[in-house]
Design brief:
Blueprint (H helix, E strand, L loop, with lengths): L24 H21 L3 H8 L1 H5 L1 H8 L7 H17 L1 H14 L4 H5 L7 H17 L2 H26 L4 H29 L5
Helix pairs in contact: 2-8, 4-5, 5-6, 5-8, 6-8, 6-9, 8-9, 9-10
Length: 209
């Protein structure tokens, strides 16, 4: 009799939208905020190193989709939105550490602000250093000053955006398509930096929901 039953099928979150009624946006938002607040409160109250290590490496084992199910649809200036973007940036770095390190190093060289110091990557910044920076920032969310970790993430994004823009300028005439792609990347990093900075300000005023 038991052989007649099958294991439940796992669907991606957007697959459920095809069914009548779909997912209730209010329920999704409430769940995202509740899980983010509960996770952060639990770990920051008792920051066991083993637990923090597993959280930092969570997407390495489970993939970014597991996080997306919880937090991807949250607004940028919210706790789940901030957590989602931190994990997304870390995944981006780990997928292409050489490329991101090159852009970050280029940005550090042309920077006219203290952003490289705020971000805190070891200089010169290669693949190993950029991966370490991503892990430090994520770890800081759980064990350090949450706003400082967000400020570091914002600074990283601004430096990388500057690197993208600088390289785009160099390639504008010789490789226009590559230049256009880099310009788009620069805009995305700049936008994400603004979102991190806003979340840091909200956190300091106890207003990051």
């Amino acid at each position: 009799m038991a052989d007649e039953f099958h294991k439940p099928t796992h669907f991606a979150g957007d697959r459920f939208d095809a069914f009548k009624g779909g997912e209730d946006p209010a329920t999704i938002s409430r769940t995202a905020h509740e899980t983010a607040h509960a996770l952060l409160a639990r770990v920051r109250t008792d920051p066991d190193p083993g637990v923090v290590d597993r959280l930092v490496a969570f997407t390495d084992e489970h993939g970014i989709d597991a996080m997306a199910e919880l937090w991807a649809r949250s607004t940028p200036r919210s706790l789940p939105g901030a957590l989602w973007r931190i994990y997304l940036v870390r995944v981006l770095i780990r997928q292409d550490p050489e490329g991101i390190a090159y852009l970050y190093q280029r940005g550090s060289e042309v920077a006219v602000s203290i952003d490289p110091l705020v971000a805190g990557a070891t200089a010169p910044t290669g693949p190993a250093e950029i991966i370490e920076l991503a892990d430090q920032i994520l770890r800081g969310l759980y064990t350090g000053d949450f706003a400082v970790a967000l400020d570091r993430a914002a600074a990283f994004c601004r430096v990388t955006a500057s690197g993208c823009a600088s390289l785009a300028d160099d390639l504008d005439h010789t490789e226009p398509e590559r230049s256009s792609t880099l310009t788009t990347q620069a805009l995305r990093f700049s936008t994400t930096a603004q979102e991190f900075a806003s979340c840091a300000r909200l956190w300091r005023h106890d207003s990051l929901e």
